[in-house]
Specification:
The complex is a heterotrimer. Chain B is an alpha+beta fold. Chain B has 3 helices and 2 strands. The chains are: A alpha+beta, B alpha+beta, C alpha/beta.
Chain lengths: ~350, ~70, ~90
């Protein structure tokens, strides 16, 4: 082995030995690489961005840069990574619960706005897949921050029974150019020329095939049936969840004059069931919790309707993916017990 | 675990009851905060599929240890 | 050898557990439900056992809004100001 090869092998192995990787090799965070990343952020190295639950490690610009370098980020990704870290540490995201739970959520980064262009953040074909450095490394940097600064070590503090592959990396762009509607960020009060990240504590995407649908009345019942089984088929009062519509599916809805609010309302109304169908032991052991059942004299005969989602606004719609293919995806949030909500941050660059 | 460490810091003895599968997580979390002598009371896992009476039986079994944990 | 910067941050500060009373006699005991399903049954039974086998001055029942987060500061302060010991559960 040449000295260069020896150094390289040592770097990779010593970082594994420190327990600071996600299982894949990381880029060794040398001082020069980290300084370059800090410089690209336009902020001071020592500036505190957030405290990362559950350990509340200090996410300074430099600590975030170290993890971003390790994840393979280019320096110019830093503003997006910093915004994403700031968002996951927002109280409303409940990273404490997300990182400790036996459930499977992982922070999903959804990028809106013009920064998708220069950073080449994929919002098109294969949007959840491999092959794009920005998506791959921005999502990975957020994960490394959660583990290295937040203490979410798998099997130690992070007790997820199954987890999912999004715990390596989970980052998409919205395909705004292929959408008939305003973007997710614009809907939430940002200007189209602003770049943002939205963070969702997200389960794995569930694909919905709807190839023969030509109208909203064809497509929406199909989507709703897949949304009905989020968590389990009798789960109710669910919170923020992402519906990722492919451009072809979005076009069906947009061309028929449906606004995002119409779609949300339709899905919310469709997804509700009478109490009698939600009693534990009827069609499965899961069901309404005791404190809800206690509100009814005879739950087994009760026809009052209980919705899957707390409100239509919990159904978050984005358009993403390739322009060919009539497939959408449901990305369930993690909303247990007043848990995690979708959190936005502007990307400052 | 954060609540328990907070109470101990505030001078209030705490017995935190956890199920056996979370022993390691509780220890790691306490140590990350510097609370190396923090002890929990462990009951058998799983809890969620148990009946009310089965959960109550866990309380009977753990009672003496809980009292020991918060007294000298 | 090249230096690699540390991606972690330790927030550990040395802590000691609180001094324990000799017994629960005359003490205020707070039973803190962390709001995980089933925990209430455990605490219900513990309350009965405390009344049978000890002579606490009072037993206070409190509940966190959710197990998925630390208790809100207001609740923590309320508990600290009114109790001698805490039993919390049930994390599973």
């Amino acid at each position: 082995m040449s000295p260069v090869e020896r150094d390289l092998a040592h770097a990779i192995e010593s970082l594994y030995a420190r327990g600071v990787t996600d299982g894949l090799p990381v880029v060794p965070p040398t001082r020069a690489l980290v300084e370059r990343a800090v410089a690209a952020s336009g902020r001071e190295a020592g500036e505190l961005v957030a405290l990362v639950p559950p350990n509340y490690g200090r996410a300074t610009v430099e600590k975030i840069a170290i993890n971003a370098v390790m994840a393979g980020c280019r320096p110019e990704y830093l503003p997006v990574v910093i915004a994403a870290v700031d968002a996951v540490c927002d109280e409303a995201f409940d990273l404490h619960g997300v990182s400790a739970t036996t459930n499977a959520p992982s922070p999903l980064v959804i990028v809106n706005g013009p920064i998708r262009g220069p950073l080449e953040i994929n919002s098109g074909a294969g949007v959840f897949g491999s092959g794009w450095r920005a998506n791959a490394t921005i999502g990975r940097a957020v994960r490394l921050v959660c583990v290295n600064l937040g203490g979410a070590r798998p099997g130690v503090v992070s007790m997820s029974t199954l987890a999912h592959p999004g715990r390596y990396t989970y980052c998409i762009g919205e395909h705004e150019e292929a959408s008939p509607w305003e973007s997710l960020a614009v809907e939430h009060g940002f200007a189209p020329e602003q770049s943002t990240v939205a963070l969702l504590a997200a389960d794995a995407p569930l694909g919905v095939y709807a190839q023969r649908s030509r109208t909203p009345e064809d497509l929406l019942p199909t989507l709703a049936a897949s949304m009905a089984v989020i968590s389990h088929h009798k789960m109710t009062h669910w919170g923020d969840t992402l519906v990722v519509l492919s451009p072809e599916h979005a076009k069906i809805l947009g061309a028929a004059g449906w606004k995002k609010a119409d779609v949300r309302r339709w899905l919310h109304e469709r997804l509700q069931w009478p109490v009698c169908e939600l009693v534990p032991g009827h069609n499965g052991g899961e069901g309404l919790p005791e404190h809800v059942l206690a509100k009814f004299a005879h739950p087994a005969a009760e026809r009052a309707m209980i919705p899957k989602f707390r409100s239509p606004e919990n159904i978050k719609l984005v358009v993403a993916g390739g322009t060919a293919g009539r497939f959408s995806a449901i990305v369930p949030g993690w909303t247990f017990s007043k848990g995690s909500n979708l959190v936005f941050r502007r990307v400052l660059s | 675990m954060h609540d328990g460490v907070f109470f101990e810091d505030s001078g209030i003895p705490v017995a935190t009851v956890i199920s056996a599968e979370f022993t390691r997580a509780a220890r790691a979390q306490a140590e990350a905060l510097g609370a190396t002598d923090y002890q929990t009371v462990v009951v058998a896992h799983p809890i969620q599929p148990l009946t009310r009476d089965e959960v109550r039986a866990l309380a009977d079994k753990a009672f003496d240890e809980i009292v020991r944990r918060i007294t000298a | 050898m090249t230096e690699y910067l540390d991606p972690t941050d330790s927030v550990a500060v040395p802590r000691k557990t609180a001094p324990r009373p000799a017994s629960l006699d005359g003490k205020v005991v707070t039973l803190l439900d962390i709001s995980k399903a089933q925990g209430n049954h455990l605490l219900d039974r513990l309350e009965e056992l405390l009344r049978e086998r000890a002579t606490p001055k009072a037993i206070i029942r409190k509940k966190k809004p959710t197990f998925a987060r630390p208790a809100p500061d207001v609740l923590r302060q309320e508990i600290v100001g009114a109790t001698d010991v805490v039993v919390e559960g049930l994390a599973d």
